[in-house]
Amino acid sequence: MMQQTRTYVIGAIALAAIIGLIWWGVTRQQNTEPQGSIKIGVIAPLTGVGSYQAQQAMRGLELARDKINKQGGVNDQNVELIVEDSKAEPATATTALNKLINVDAVKFVIGDVWVSTTVVIVPIANERGVFLLSPIATLNSLSKEDLFFRTMPTTKDMMEPLASYAYNTMGVRRVGILRQATPFGVEHANDFREAFQKLGGQIVAEESFDLTASDVRTEISKVKAQNPDAIFNLHATSPRLGLLMKQAKELGLTNVKWLGSFGSENGTLVKEYGSVVNGLTYPYSYDPADKGKGVQTFVAAYQVKHTDLPDLAAANSYDALSLLVEAIDEVGEDPQKVKEYFLGLKDYDGASGVITFDQNGDVKKPIFIKEIREGQFVRLSK
């Protein structure tokens, strides 16, 4: 009987030890793995004319999110992206932001990854105290001291080098403008005109059309009648740039030079229109060949998952999420404190280059000129 009792006691001790080890393991796991999530809203044109930009942006965002969560998240929480499709439509972008604020209760939103829709959501974000960070929006009109920041230079910063290159290097004197009827089209046209005319150039015609227009022959014909040396192509940042050039060449505009915005660097554009878009010259603010540590670390990580090189939207979006999470980790989830953190940031070595924000949440980055040449995006200027 005593032997049986001793066996029971030893068994009970062993069972208690096993339970203790299991409890210790569970507790340790709970203490070391991120609990819950920090929700970050994302607004991007996943469908519609801006889908290529959105695809690139999501690659950058997902790469940053996965890296952050693999390293333990932030403040013992994983980063969760709540993504809404703006369709590159102002009304849809507004609905998306209201949903993120009212339903998902987010305090931070990255987007829109489209210029003309960002304009309509900035006032809403400011009114509701939501920190809004765009990887793409360039418009000068958004340069204000508020809760809106961007990892992209302004339209004016992009247009001045383009005008200078067109006038001084390409020898262009007479430019016709074909543009989308959006804030993006208006600002790019105005800023290019101002810079080009200061150099002595002339804008001989300007025609606008709907963002989704698939037939712009009438507008092209009006510009053609003014005998321009070059045409500034400001159709949607999508293959419609190629559609416009194809229609222009079919109408006999074969000897003009072509200028474009940063959106000319579009993989789908060169795949669909090939030699049609050869010679399209544009300004750009990102170079994957940059020797900076931040750029090269990002490019290496990107190419583990994707065969092509990252573009501006991917790099800027990666930086947007990385910076936002760094700020939250340092100062918490108060949008005003995050704003102050961003304003105090100096020379951040990012995926898109070195970043410093001014008092209006704008960045200054080197702008250089590129050209589409046989399906490649070739850098022309230093």
The major beta sheet can be summarized as:
5 strands, parallel
CATH fold category name of the largest domain = Rossmann fold
State the helicity in percent bands.
Answer: 40-55%
Q: Give the name of the CATH superfamily of the largest domain.
A: Response regulator
Order of the strands making up the biggest sheet: 2-1-3-4-5
Mean pLDDT: 92
N- to C-terminal distance: 92 Å
CATH architecture of the largest domain: 3-Layer(aba) Sandwich
Structural class: alpha/beta
Q: How many domain modules?
A: 2
Annotation field: number of helices: 12
CATH class of the largest domain: Alpha Beta
Shape: globular
Element string (H = helix, E = strand) = HEHEHEHEEHEHEHEHEHEHHHEEEE
Strand content: 15-25%
Total strand segments: 14
Low-pLDDT runs of 5+ residues are: 1-32
Summary, kept brief:
The protein is an alpha/beta fold and 382 residues long.
How would you characterize this protein structure?
There is one protein chain. The protein is an alpha/beta fold. Helix content is 46%, strand content 19%. Strand 13 (368-373) and strand 14 form a beta hairpin. The longest helix has 31 residues, at 2-32. It is globular and about 65 Å long. The relative contact order is 0.13. Mean pLDDT is 92; it is low at 1-32.
Any chance you could write out the topology, listing elements then pairs?
Blueprint: H1 2-32, E1 37-44, H2 51-70, E2 78-85, H3 90-102, E3 108-111, H4 115-128, E4 131-134, E5 148-150, H5 155-169, E6 174-180, H6 183-198, E7 202-209, H7 217-224, E8 230-234, H8 240-250, E9 257-260, H9 267-273, E10 281-284, H10 293-305, H11 312-331, H12 335-343, E11 348-350, E12 353-355, E13 368-373, E14 376-379
Parallel strand pairs: 1-2, 1-3, 3-4, 4-5, 6-7, 6-8, 8-9
Antiparallel strand pairs: 10-13, 11-12, 13-14
Helix pairs in contact: 2-11, 3-4, 5-6, 8-9, 11-12
